[in-house]
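User: quick one, sequence for these tokens?
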């Protein structure tokens, strides 16, 4: 059973005073939400940080146009008894929301085996509660960041409703709510009428639903704008060096230092290297012993102007696996899960299927006819849905595998990684 630790400000602030001065320099590979949060956690503790990123801007891969939800309390792992029951439909391609690649890479067999083991009820609960711990730490770290610095990224506390149309799934969700509430999460179980009173857009839903879980403290924010704002902050106030447009072709370490070899042949070194390279970490997986750790899971999003009765609260239609999020006066809609697919091409048929599911779930949520082009990204999945935040070998650590909740987990994951590095390096 997962052992939950109490969450308090000292968990994040206390590390600062304990660790200052022990580590001089660090390289962070990858400028997605996780890399930017990690760079911040290290730089704030006095470490000289260089961020290396192959794209010309931060946050242009999985962190570009995701569902925008900071889902601190709703941390349900993907591998679950419910998904296991549904596995035949997934394998036969009969579920529009979740699919497996037709030809799965043999390298993923180990991951799939681990995934099946994690679908047992006890593991699902433990993984979900471990996710909650990281989610609540992240919420605290995000709030502390915003108390220190004014950052513009469309951040808002909207609250979130999960809508259930299946009685058995709703009963299981109520059970999980009770466990999470005991650990400090704020969640309520609502009737359909109570849910409609919180979000009027639900009145236009044609399909019946049996109830909802309401998480009033959940937040939203644009991850790409967050990465841009963090880059500005890190350079301006923390002296962080951003090396954009630089691709790491190799990495290495010895007793004294770690380094990146760029594809232009430059060697960039530091005391420690932290890989925050999302699904791109697979290029280095074999040498790091991580070859069965990450599975790509492609997903889609689209952004549409707000509908007639503007959405105020984030909503997830649990059965359709579609999320709706009010973001800067528009609505971000995200969904679809394609396990084993690692290309980011936007397939118009898949985008149409997301749009159709969204229109069926909440017809009044957005002006669907004026939706933008759509986007596809890759969630870097571990079999447990929990990230790997650990030292891999002397002077090399990873902060990877944040899966469906990388934006949510980013700030807490950065703090955890900094604490690991600064405690271990003398
Ligand atoms: C459709 C969709 C919806 C989602 N919705 C949500 C949501 O609502 N809430 C939530 O919490 N999460 C959500 N996620 C998950 C979240 O987006 C990811 O977990 C998160 O963005 C991962 O962040 P990251 O920094 O680890 O990876 P990335 O953002 O992919 O960053 C990794 C960076 O490393 C760089 N890189 C990789 N290899 C190299 C190299 N060799 N050299 C130099 N640079 C390199 C890449 O260019 C990239 O910029 C969603 C994901 C998808 C696809």
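Assistant:
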């Amino acid at each position: 059973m997962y052992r939950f630790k109490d969450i308090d400000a000292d968990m994040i602030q206390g590390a600062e005073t304990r660790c200052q001065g022990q580590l001089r320099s660090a390289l962070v590979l990858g400028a997605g939400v996780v890399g930017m949060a990690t760079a911040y956690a290290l730089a704030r503790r006095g470490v000289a940080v260089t961020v290396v990123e192959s794209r010309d801007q931060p946050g242009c891969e999985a962190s570009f146009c995701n569902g925008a939800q900071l889902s601190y309390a709703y941390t349900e792992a993907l591998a679950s008894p419910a998904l296991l029951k549904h596995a035949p439909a997934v394998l036969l391609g009969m579920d529009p929301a979740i699919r497996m690649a037709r030809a799965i890479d043999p390298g993923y067999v180990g991951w799939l085996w681990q995934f099946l083991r994690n679908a047992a009820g006890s593991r699902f609960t433990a993984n979900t509660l471990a996710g909650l711990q990281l989610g609540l730490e992240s919420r605290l770290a995000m709030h502390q960041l915003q108390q220190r610095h004014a950052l513009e990224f469309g951040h808002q506390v909207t609250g979130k409703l999960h809508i259930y149309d299946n009685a058995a799934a709703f009963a299981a969700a109520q059970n999980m709510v009770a466990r999470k509430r005991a650990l400090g999460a704020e969640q309520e179980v609502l009737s359909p009428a109570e849910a409609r009173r919180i979000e009027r857009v639900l009145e236009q839903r044609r399909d019946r639903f049996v109830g909802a879980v309401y998480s009033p403290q959940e937040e939203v924010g644009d991850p790409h704008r967050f990465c841009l704002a963090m880059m500005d902050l890190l350079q301006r106030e923390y002296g962080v060096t951003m090396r954009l447009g630089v691709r790491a072709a190799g990495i290495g370490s010895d007793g004294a230092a770690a380094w990146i070899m760029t594809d232009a042949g430059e060697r960039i070194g530091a005391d420690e290297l932290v890989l925050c390279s999302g699904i791109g970490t697979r290029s280095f997986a074999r040498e790091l012993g991580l070859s069965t750790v990450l599975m790509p899971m492609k997903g889609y999003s689209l952004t549409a102007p707000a509908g007639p009765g503007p959405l105020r609260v984030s909503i997830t239609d649990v059965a359709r696996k579609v999320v709706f999020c009010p973001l800067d006066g528009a609505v971000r809609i995200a969904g679809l899960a394609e396990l084993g697919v690692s290309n980011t091409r936007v397939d118009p048929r898949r985008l149409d299927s997301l749009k159709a599911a969204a229109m069926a779930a909440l017809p009044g949520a957005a002006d669907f006819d004026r939706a933008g082009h759509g986007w596809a990204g890759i969630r870097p999945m571990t079999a447990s849905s929990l990230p790997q935040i650990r030292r891999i070998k002397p002077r090399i650590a990873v902060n990877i595998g944040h899966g469906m909740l990388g934006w949510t987990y980013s700030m807490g994951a950065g703090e955890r990684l900094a604490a690991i590095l600064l405690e271990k390096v003398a």
